[in-house]
Amino acid sequence: MQDFPDPEPGPGEVVVRMRASGMCGSDLHFYRGTASFGGGKDTIQGHEPCGEVHAVGPGVTADMASVGDRVMIHHYWGCDACEHCRSGWPQMCDRENGHTLSITTHGGHAPYMVVPARTLLPLPDALSYKAGAAIGCGTGTAWGGIKRLGNIGGATLVVMGQGLVGLSGTMFASALGARVIAVDVRDARLDRAREFGASEVINSAEVDLTEAMADLTGGRGAEVILETSGVAGADALKILGKWGRACFIGLPGDVSFRTEQQYKKQWTLMTSWTMSTIEQARCANFVVAHQLPVDRIFTHSWSLDHAVEAYQWFDEQADGKGVFEF
């Protein structure tokens, strides 16, 4: 356990008082000491923050941020000059001088956090701070993958994995008019998938996935797949039908195929990396417009005083999604 001074905002920065900070699976890389992409023991974790503006630094005008504003945070920022930053994709900064919460700078598992004012996005009044935290990464990542897949209305869409990202994908795809088939190896997660809009569920640990999909699709296979588990890439390709589209967002996510065996299926395969600032705002507005139950994705709430207990529970990866509330 370490003590850190309360942050002070510099030019163009704001201090956000945390109200909710989600626990993401990638946080466990740092908790376990296995992270290979930055961060460390001296970096405060938490890249799913949501709260209210507590203080503003020099140069931050009222149209940028004001004390008391309810805000989400896009947890990346870059040079602000390259085409990716200017189009709302700072995580793809060409100048490679970008920042990521909990990796290159302190995250939201603390009472206060300092970020550039340009990372803030308004949190709609109809959304809770917990919902804003989920949209900041896990739920937003599912939204980004769904948007990459294009029009899914009326399609049979398979969501591989029903953790936070998978449940969010199931929820969005159902709201967009897809017939969703949820796949996981745990019945408890599949029960939750039904609550979030899945038409059918498959426990791939108990039945043959290929046969089950053939039964549900008349032998045609999936039209669209969102792979969120990071371990089911091979299974996804086994059930993807002709002209199918698949987006792989689960990590580490090994995916391979032999062109000679698959080229006649005319697949479109893609990846997605969270979402842009613009899509984060659109995701929040979509949740409001469709009254989607994002809050219920979190199964456990903790205070920072119980962070040790929270991470011990989270490290087991038995089930559920945790959030710190302030």
From TrEMBL:
Cofactor(s), by name: Zn(2+)
Pathway involvement of the protein, from the record: Metabolic intermediate biosynthesis; 2-deoxystreptamine biosynthesis; 2-deoxystreptamine from D-glucose 6-phosphate: step 3/4
Domain Enoyl reductase (ER): 2-324
Annotated EC: 1.1.1.329
Keywords: Metal-binding, Oxidoreductase, Zinc
Annotated SUPFAM superfamilies: GroES-like, NAD(P)-binding Rossmann-fold domains
Catalytic activity: 2-deoxy-scyllo-inosamine + NADP(+) = 3-amino-2,3-dideoxy-scyllo-inosose + NADPH + H(+); 2-deoxy-scyllo-inosamine + NAD(+) = 3-amino-2,3-dideoxy-scyllo-inosose + NADH + H(+)
Keyword rRNA-binding: no
Highest taxon above the source species: Bacteria
Family of this protein: Belongs to the zinc-containing alcohol dehydrogenase family. DOIA dehydrogenase subfamily.
PANTHER family referenced in this protein's UniProt entry, alphabetically: ALCOHOL DEHYDROGENASE-RELATED, L-THREONINE 3-DEHYDROGENASE
Stated role: Catalyzes the oxidation of 2-deoxy-scyllo-inosamine (DOIA) with NAD(+) or NADP(+), forming 3-amino-2,3-dideoxy-scyllo-inosose (amino-DOI).
Full protein name: 2-deoxy-scyllo-inosamine dehydrogenase
Organism annotation: Streptomyces viridiviolaceus
Source taxonomy: Bacteria, Bacillati, Actinomycetota, Actinomycetes, Kitasatosporales
